[in-house]
Write a structure and sequence with these properties.
The complex is a heterodimer of chains A (89) and B (418).
Chain A (H helix, E strand, L loop, with lengths): L2 E4 L3 E4 L4 E5 L13 H8 L8 E7 L7 E7 L5 E6 L6
Antiparallel strand pairs in A: 1-2, 3-4, 4-5, 5-6
Chain B lengths: L5 H8 L18 E7 L3 H14 L4 E4 L15 E2 L6 H21 L10 E5 L2 H16 L5 E4 H7 L15 E5 L3 E2 L2 H14 L3 E3 L4 E7 L2 E7 L2 E10 L5 H7 L6 E11 L9 E4 L4 E5 L5 E11 L7 H14 L8 E12 L5 E4 L5 E5 L9 H14 L13 H4 L16
Parallel strand pairs in B: 1-2, 1-11, 2-8, 4-13, 11-18
Antiparallel strand pairs in B: 3-7, 4-6, 5-6, 9-10, 10-11, 12-15, 12-16, 13-14, 14-15, 17-18
Helix pairs in contact in B: 2-6, 2-9, 3-9
Chain lengths: 89, 418
């Protein structure tokens, strides 16, 4: 069982959360002309690192806020959690 | 190479089985090979075997970080099937079914292929319609498919929950009678033994630490046992693909996720088929030892841990008990996990790359084991001829940017949703 420290609610079990994927993926700017390659990068390509991974989780059975979690993908250690709009150190 | 037969078994019984030849050698790596295959799993071993057998390329090394067959080929639920709707997947997998049927003879190794049939249960009229469409698509590609009604399903698997007032009543199912199971370890060992006998070097406990690439051409790999030169290099490393891709400065349409499986204590023969639950993600078959072999959802977040987490197991077995209530009475014998290379459309990639002489085989998601022979066969062709075969032409790396996805399940890019 993972225990995730929701920045809004405190420490809760993973059962309350839904995963949202890589949080470092940035949608291209709306007003900018972009190439197929840039769109491909955004929609499909993922680093999927072994080690530290910044990811989105949705506290769907709690406060229903999206949060960011920095977690190790091989040990499952959770280093830090952030509010969705919080600056990442 | 010593031929395995009933006669060699009797002969070796007289010497207390002390004089069997080793099944494969443990060589030190040479300075250079024509082809290096990274990854000594089912696909890598099969690729080396077909390189030697079909293309007469025998100056080949398989480099494996751990031991051969220690990854997903030894961790899957041994299911073999070709019940796909899309042409690319159907034709590729059905080609593989032919190789499965011949495999024990071909490898002189009993892989215990057991075409016992797979039944996908349907729990609504809409699902029956979808299965009817999928079955028809399969039959158009020459794959056997039978649509079963509720009574026909009940005759085959009377132990399923056919009582009234269940949350997901069984409406019927889609069956592929020629699908089945095989002994997964034997597949790895059989391919390894034959590849070794044809001159392939199987190098275990040898981790790849880097690549030598110059002017867009692969020159060799750096490993924990030193540098090894090669004209061509094939990647066959499933869940570790992204780790090697990073060394090559490549970003791929793949995420690595954890999938669990488990077996119950052994019980008397009960279940003749492979059965999948249609209202969730759960599948079950009974091994020759009598264990119920079960699996289901991914753990649901990026993971390289090869160890599962209990909430997912509980969720999967809840579905299992909804389908087969008797499972609740069984004790769990073992659970384990493997790391899956989940591609963004659920279909694999077998292709060349932008680096000359570097070839990619990945993205197998849940379905790597059944694809072992067809994957090895087509990957060997792609490496040997430096061009893709018709069978794996659809499994291109650039299909994501060109929009030619093979999205069998229509799930999109959220690979962890099932």
């Amino acid at each position: 069982m993972l225990y995730i420290n929701c920045p809004h609610c405190g420490l809760r079990s993973q059962n309350e959360f839904a995963y949202g994927g890589d949080a470092t993926v940035k949608r291209p700017e709306l007003n900018k002309e972009i190439s197929d390659q840039e769109w491909d990068n955004f929609v499909y390509l993922r680093k999927s690192p072994r080690g530290k991974h910044l990811e989105l989780w949705h506290h769907i059975s709690g406060c229903r806020q999206w949060i960011k979690v920095e977690r190790d993908t091989s040990t499952h250690e959770i280093f830090k959690t952030y509010k969705a709009n919080e600056a990442i150190e | 190479m010593q031929k395995y037969s009933v006669f060699s078994l009797i002969k070796n019984a007289f010497s207390d089985h002390q004089n069997w030849e080793v099944a494969w050698k443990d060589p030190t790596p040479k300075k250079e090979y024509d082809v290096i295959i990274i990854g000594g799993g089912g696909h890598g071993l099969a690729t080396a075997y077909y390189l030697a057998k079909e293309h007469n390329i025998t100056n080949v090394a398989i480099i494996e970080k751990g031991w051969i067959g220690g990854g997903n080929v030894g961790r899957n639920t041994t299911i073999i099937r070709s019940n796909y709707m899309h042409d690319e997947n159907g034709l590729f997998s059905e080609f593989g079914m032919d190789l499965w049927r011949k495999m024990s003879q071909d490898l002189n190794y009993n892989v215990m292929f057991s075409p016992r049939g797979i039944i996908n249960l349907a729990h609504s009229d809409a699902q029956m319609n979808a299965y009817s469409r999928r079955g028809n698509s399969m039959r158009l590609n020459g794959i056997d498919a039978v649509l079963l009604n509720r009574d026909e399903v009940q005759k085959l698997i009377p132990m399923a929950d056919f009582s009234d007032n269940v949350r997901f009543p069984i409406f019927g199912g889609l069956m592929q009678p020629s699908a089945g199971t095989a002994r997964h370890d034997a597949v790895a060992w059989g391919y390894a033994r034959q590849a070794d006998s044809m001159g392939v070097d199987i190098i275990q406990n040898c981790e790849v630490t880097g690549f030598d690439v110059s002017n867009g051409k692969i020159l060799g790999v750096r490993t924990s046992k030193g540098e090894i030169k090669a004209k061509k290099v094939g990647l066959c490393v499933a869940g570790s693909t992204n780790i090697l891709a990073e060394m090559l400065n490549m970003t791929l349409p793949i995420e690595t996720h954890l999938l669990q499986a488990c077996v119950s204590e052994p019980i008397k023969p009960l279940l003749d088929h492979v059965v999948t639950f249609g209202a969730g993600h759960f599948y079950c078959s009974q091994s020759d030892k009598g264990e119920m072999v079960m699996g289901g959802d991914l753990d649901g977040y990026n993971s390289y841990s090869q160890r599962g987490n209990l909430p997912t197991l509980q969720h999967v077995l809840t579905e299992g008990i909804a389908m087969f209530p008797f499972l609740s009475k069984l004790k769990m014998l073992r659970t384990w996990g493997g790391i899956m290379d989940m591609s963004m459309d659920g279909s694999p990639i077998i292709d060349k790359t932008h680096i000359n002489g570097l070839y990619l085989n990945c993205g197998w998601c849940y379905g790597g084991f059944k694809a072992t022979p067809a994957s090895g066969w087509t990957f060997a062709h792609t490496i040997a001829q430096d061009r893709v075969h018709d069978l794996n032409a659809g499994y291109s790396l650039n299909r994501f940017s060109t929009g030619n996805l093979i999205d069998e399940k229509g799930l999109g890019t959220k690979t962890w949703i099932s």
